[in-house]
Predict the structure of DUF4185 domain-containing protein.
Amino acid sequence: MTRFRPVLAPLAIALLGFTAVPLPAAATPAATPDAACTPAVVAGATTDARLTGLFTAYGNDNSRLDDWTGADGTYSLRLPDGKELWIFSDTFLGQVNQDGSRPPVVEEGGTTVFLNNSFAVERGGRLATIHDGTAAKPTAVMPPRDENHWYWAGDATLAGGIVEATYQEYERFGTGAWDWRWHRNVVARFAPGRLERPISVHDLPSGHGVAWASATLKDGGFTYVYGVEDLGSPKYMHLARVRGQSLLGTWEFLTADGTWSRNETDSARIMSGVANEYSVTKVGSSYVLITHDTSEPLSPNIVAYTSCSPSGPFTGRQHVYTTPETGGNIFTYNAHAHPDVAGDGLVVSYNVNSFVNTDHYRDVTIYRPRFLDVTFE
């Protein structure tokens, strides 16, 4: 893999999946039932024209040539001043040609800059790209330690007004296109007024093969941190929690018998079939898990599960949406919700990519997020 070819990043997180069902009863974490809990029922999903159009217009705007023209990842966080922070992994910066194409990346002789992570800030329907470096030579907001390592973004949370953004570090171990692997988890702390580089970076639990955090959720005095144990096929959900708001606190891991342990090796496989990025959101009195369906290879289907507890079990699979972009070289992946973002329902994003790298130069619309409004009965 070359770090400037984004097609390989999502391929690693969109490999063959496994049927998304709870594990056998002996290994299913116990939940505390809520007598008042009514499982949310999906009523429908429609395109969120505002957000999809916002990123389309911004990506096509050539008034600056050091800003966003496409990316994947697409996490979000409401900042203390009301702005929306958009958190991206692999990112294109530069210009868009009049025919809807983009120049190749710098490393291939073009002018497009490729970064492994970036931010964008939205306020009042206007976006601004955040990167480190200079306008002439942008660099990632979460810089790699060397050319053989890079960071892809996970979910983020606020702690005492500070942004705590999670990242998974990947490393190259050979010369082959697929000679790279997940290495560790970290959390980078950013001041909301100085987002181009972190204040500090801290190690997160990384000794049990789980990539944290596919999702985070604040609930009942805890911050829940959802992760994925990625075996290609299958992928397993894991769950940890920290008392309070900061991920720098003491982590506890959900075990197979439904108790919590401070020993990372006790972390249990909650269910199989989640994507590498998903979300758990409180909707009414229940908790809704939204993920790309991985019961079939590179599925175009987004599905939802519900639980009466943030720790599951998540059951009752419901179809949410079939992505129309999927077909030929194009695939979609990593749907998850944005509960703090205003929309006509629960806002959900998903990513679009191609198996053919030159497609990203031919058509800038491919490597951009799409947004949905999901409603519930």
